[in-house]
Amino acid sequence: MQMIEIEQLPGSVIPPPIQVGEATISEEAIAREMQYHPADNAGSAQLKAVRALVVRELLRQRAAELGLDVTGEEETDLVIATLLEEELDVPEPSDDDCRRFYAAAPTRFSEPGRVRVRHVLLAAAPDDAEARDAQYRLGQELIEALTAAPGRFTEFAQRHSACPSRDEGGELGWLAPGQTVAELDRALQHLPEGLHERPLASRYGWHVVVIDERREGHALPFERVAERVRHTLREQATRRVLRHYLLALESRTGVDGIALDDESDSSLMQ
Q: What is the pTM assigned to this prediction?
């Protein structure tokens, strides 16, 4: 049996057909499935699609082996869910397990820091050097004017900002990490309170930014996050059990054209 190593696949193309037991996964089926698996390139999308189809076919065949009806598309999904509930033995995490996990990674269950932000977005495309230069100079002028007259921020936001927040005087409200565009988000985590001394760049242009207030993150007591901890451990245990189950089905059924790996359970977990 010739297996294609997973490491060779991103950016490349998997030569169909893929064989799962006596069933063939065709090129057409893979092409249809790819739309549900966005990726950076066609090879990665194809790989995700093939994994999902192989996993589904392994489970369909196991359900049929047990005498379950897998003839209809929607019915098959329900049957597979029932199959997994019956065949997967997922251990329930104990209170001690949860407390140990929490103690080992307390920041994972912390209240994140937040900043209350106003901004003026001076729009300019990343590849428009002339516009970016002009908007940067405008940003410097606005910052100079605001240094002398902070009360004009709402006026400047309404007049110049390309962000819908201009109607609120540039108010973005309280932002936690990950709630705005990545390049601006990184900067906001480190800025002191007040008007920043220069425009900040993003893919959308330049931002004149004021940090009105900052609240630092803090650890939450175990009692506040016990259910989150338990859910996390239960999900990890489910992934492990499901992975072993799928690999056992792969070994018993036989799969030609691809080998399942540690990410092959992702579509089912989602």
A: 0.60
